[in-house]
Design brief:
With about 450 residues, the chain is mainly beta. The chain has a domain of about 150 residues. The chain is about 5% helix and about 55% strand. The protein is built from three helices and 26 strands. The strands form four sheets. It has a 17-stranded antiparallel β-sheet. Strands 3, 4, 9, 10 and 11 form a five-stranded mixed β-sheet that branches. A two-stranded antiparallel sheet has the order 5-6. It is globular. The two termini are about 40 Å apart.
């Protein structure tokens, strides 16, 4: 699907993307462990690409091709629409932390440093980076502060979901019988006294029962400095989550899961100038998966997710804040519609799958996307949609365990824009044809 004009649709992005990780773990003394993981992610032959050229009345400006993010409305000026970076061969420190276990002889541990944090399915906390790259190559031509669609020629477009998810955090964890309680504090952005700090505070109680499944009770506070909000720009999220098998089902297996989140707080975004406003939002999901009693383990599943959107006729903010979610809703649409952080959404997912043998797994998922509120704001174009129907997607995925260490994967995805997108993009002369992706992968662990 084109995001700027019809010329994009005639091009296909073909590339190879590699992620390499290596870690060192050392038990220093009794109950003290140090862990460091190094990471390199790169596109093969990255250095040979020319990148993106932006032309306006003042001349040409070179922008590296990876990653490129087109923020907000594509008719804005170059200075307001482009952010960029570049893949290179540097090796980064992906994780680096120490863990002190059994502190003072009690079942309490302390973990300090760059670490991964995931609670439940990662509905609120699971990804501290939101690592999505938009790959683009070509030329943007501006005239009178707007894109000249007749002269603009963008050659490729694709998305890469990066591997980085870690938080810079301190975590206390206590265990007793079937309960685990975590208390965390994470730093997302350091403002160095300039009023741009962003922090996460939270407590999560995980309870694993014998007969009633696994439960999580959590409270998270996302806190940001903001001159438009008295005190702090803060979102408080209270979450209850449960999952487990239904014991009354004796033929096959029925697994159910659900989570409900209530968000409140004082945040930026109120009318008329993004002033302080009261946040009142809801989010949650329900899912069920039935696995048949068969050697091939066929299954059917259904999931429904709702994330409230902002209503146009109230002074409150009703848009759900996904915080640091790691949830994904489709191989293509998750990036195209939501930028990896869904809100203002009603998402229905139906899936089925089978394992023809112990090495091969086949799964097919179908997604239907709707806006919770029609006055939607997609990250590549702003405005009211004529319909809440945003589109649908098919994802066909195959994985094959070649050995215990090597796994091959193949995914084919097709996203079809709905009326809510096609009508909104007609005035911009943007091609809204299907977007397709074919992704092959090889995963080696040792």
């Amino acid at each position: 699907m084109d995001l700027v004009n019809e010329k994009w649709s005639a091009n296909v992005a073909n590339f190879l993307y590699q992620v390499s990780r290596i870690y060192v773990s050392a038990d220093l003394t009794d109950n003290v462990n140090a862990y460091v993981r190094f990471l390199n992610d790169r596109v093969w032959g990255d250095g040979s690409l020319d990148g993106l050229t932006v032309k306006d009345a003042s001349g040409s400006v070179y922008v590296p091709v990876y990653p490129y993010t087109l923020e907000a409305d594509p008719t804005t000026t170059p200075s307001g629409s482009i952010s960029s970076g570049s893949f290179d061969s540097n090796v980064e420190i992906d994780l680096a932390y120490i863990t002190l276990a059994e502190m003072f002889g009690y079942p309490i541990s302390l973990t300090i440093g760059r670490q991964e944090l995931t609670y439940g399915e990662g509905f609120l906390v699971g990804d501290g980076v939101s690592d999505i790259y938009t790959l683009i190559d070509g030329e943007l031509v501006y005239a009178a502060g707007k894109i000249d669609k007749d002269k603009t020629d963008i050659n490729t477009l694709a998305y890469i979901y990066g591997p980085k998810k870690a938080f810079d955090a301190i975590k206390f964890s206590g265990k007793y019988d079937n309960s685990t309680i975590d208390v965390i504090k994470a730093k997302l952005t350091e403002g160095y006294g300039r009023g741009t700090d962003e922090n996460l505070y939270g407590v999560n109680w995980n309870l694993a029962t014998d007969s009633y499944g696994v439960w999580d009770f959590a409270a998270f506070i996302k806190s940001q400095d903001d001159i438009k909000v008295k005190g702090k720009d803060q979102t408080l999220a209270l979450s209850v989550r449960g999952e487990g098998d239904i014991p009354q089902i004796t033929v096959g297996k029925l697994h159910v899961k659900a989570e409900v989140v209530k968000e409140t707080g004082k945040v930026e975004g109120g009318k008329p100038n993004n002033d302080e406003a009261t946040l009142e939002a809801w989010g949650g999901y329900f899912g069920a998966k039935y696995t048949f009693d068969n050697p091939y383990e066929p299954y059917i599943s259904v999931n429904y997710t709702r994330l409230t959107g902002d209503k146009s006729n109230t002074k409150k903010i009703e848009a759900f804040d996904p915080m640091y979610t790691s949830e994904s809703y489709g191989e293509i649409a998750d990036a195209v519609l939501y930028g990896g952080s869904a809100t203002n959404a009603k998402i229905t997912q139906v899936g089925l799958g089978v394992s023809p043998n112990e090495k091969l797994n086949i799964g097919l998922d179908y997604y239907i996307y709707e806006a919770d509120q029609a006055a939607t704001s997609l990250y590549y174009v702003k405005g009211k949609a004529d319909s809440r129907k945003l589109g649908s997607e098919w994802d066909l995925a195959l994985t094959y365990d070649y050995t215990e260490d090597v796994q091959f994967g193949l995914t084919y995805a097709v996203f079809t824009p709905g009326r809510g997108i096609t009508k909104a993009l007609d005035s911009l002369d943007i091609n809204d044809a299907q977007a397709k992706a074919l992704i092959g992968s090889v995963k080696v662990t040792f």
